[in-house]
Design a protein that fits this description.
The chain has no helices and six strands. With 101 residues, it is mainly beta. It has one domain: predicted glycosyltransferase like domains (Thrombin, subunit H), CATH 2.40.10.220. β4 and β5 form a beta hairpin.
């Protein structure tokens, strides 16, 4: 995968971001409902991803993601937490990537 542009804050990131264009299945649970949506993975890193989905996920929402690596064709299943949102663009931190700082 090709690295993305280097934003001014790039040096502060823990993981390098890579462009992606892959279909994504998002599963979110709440106390009152179970939501399954299709989306599109736009960026990947070792610690998370940016995706597009026509949903209404608040930061802090736990999600399960299923996507196919566009280079290898392998299907991946990961759990994570919505950390940021801008309209229908979401930033997710993978559960295994969290560190105590």
């Amino acid at each position: 995968m090709e690295p993305l542009y280097h934003a001014p804050h790039e040096g502060k990131r823990r993981w390098r971001r890579h462009k992606a264009d892959a279909p994504l299945r998002i599963l979110a649970h709440s106390a009152s409902q179970k939501l399954v949506l299709d989306g599109r993975c736009l960026q990947l890193s070792d610690g998370g991803m940016c995706f597009f989905a026509l949903g209404n996920f608040a930061p802090g929402t736990q999600v399960h993601l299923e996507f196919v690596n566009p280079e290898t064709g392998e299907t991946h299943f990961v759990r994570g937490t919505i950390r940021s949102r801008s309209v229908y663009l979401y930033g997710v931190e993978y559960e295994a990537s969290r560190t105590d700082a």
